[in-house]
Amino acid sequence: MPAPIPCPLTLITGFLGSGKTTLIKEMLAHETFANTMVIVNEFGEIGIDHSLMRASTEEVILLPSGCLCCTLRGDLRDLLRDLVARRLAAEIGFDRVVLETTGLADPAPILHTLLTDPVLAEHYRMDGVVTVVDAVTGAANLRRSTAAQRQVALADLVVLSKTDLPEAQPQARSPRPQIARLNPAAEIVPVVQGRLPPDRLRHLGHFDAAMSGSMSGVSARAWIATRVPAADPEHLSRIRTVSWEVEAPLTASRFDLWMDVLMARRGADVLRFKGIVHLQDMAYPFAVHGVQHIFHPPLPLTGWQAPDRHSRFVMIVQDFSDDEVAALCDALAIVPLTEHLLTTGYLGESTA
Ligand SMILES: Nc1nc2c(ncn2[C@@H]2O[C@H](COP(=O)(O)OP(=O)(O)OP(=O)(O)O)[C@@H](O)[C@H]2O)c(=O)[nH]1
């Protein structure tokens, strides 16, 4: 029997809220990516991105909460192996896999899994690592987060997002010099709303040359280690994820005020806010996205199909106490259906 043709796999990484989902949604709109299986790894117990992405493709798999680079590496391996088996049995058909990591993920251990597991190495071909860097908040993220640095260091292509925002204009704020220092070989492409000719996202394969054939764990580890700054688990325990699901629609004025106060008081420490929000007297919900102090205009989800009117929020925050989280909930006058507070040790121990 001829050897199976390996399926190209693209890893999309980038710091919290940088624009990974936006890029993937645009990608899926192109014929080139019509038959793509998307795997999303999200923080928080309540998936938001995959609900938004389902509008673009049915083939979206949500990995359970947690982070691929530490606790979920085994799950990823099992999932990719299972997809191979089902593809070979002609139960499902796809030509490509796109894997979106959480914004806090260190891509090195994930790559290590993808490149060194013998089954995965035979059936998948790394088609590139695309790292999205936010033109507004990217420079600050690269200063303070080792995960952000490692994402850039391992990129084949760096997509510089949000270049349309006025806050991205000052030269002094540009993350380009840091990107060039961390990864002189990576190409940097400015984009707006993830729009990029689809061919720019294929055959990025520095891996083809550097890592062709199956690699031993030792050589993959060594190769990765030459490219990335050391992991620094110092600040990790300061970050936590807060997720709420609320049954009753919210009052628009209260929600606006709540957001304003939260941003004014703690904007810099709300690393990421995302939600699907149902407001009273509105037939459809809104997608709400915040990335540190930048709040993007709410997006009406006019085609929303889900029968329930539950609002869902996920916040990734730094240095918030239990009391502060409880006070936030009280201030919004919500009685959550579900509430999750996760203290995340998100990087875990790197194998790189
Ligand atoms: N103005 C502008 N907004 C953008 C651009 N790209 C993404 N956004 C907005 O930025 C917010 C975050 O984008 P996402 O695509 O959800 O970011 P993400 O990296 O998937 O976020 P996480 O998965 O939570 O880390 C959303 O409100 C997007 O609409 C862009 O090029 N320009």
Automatic annotation (TrEMBL):
SMART domains in UniProt: CobW_C (SM00833)
CobW C-terminal domain span: 239-332
Organism domain of life: Bacteria
Gene3D superfamilies named among the record's database cross-references: CobW-like, C-terminal domain (3.30.1220.10), P-loop containing nucleotide triphosphate hydrolases (3.40.50.300)
Key word S-adenosyl-L-methionine present: no
Annotated keywords: Chaperone, Hydrolase, Nucleotide-binding, Plasmid
Pfam families xref list: cobW, CobW_C
Catalytic activity of the protein: GTP + H2O = GDP + phosphate + H(+)
Keyword Nucleotide-binding: yes
Family statement: Belongs to the SIMIBI class G3E GTPase family. ZNG1 subfamily.
Function: Zinc chaperone that directly transfers zinc cofactor to target proteins, thereby activating them. Zinc is transferred from the CXCC motif in the GTPase domain to the zinc binding site in target proteins in a process requiring GTP hydrolysis.
Name of the protein in its database record: GTP-binding protein
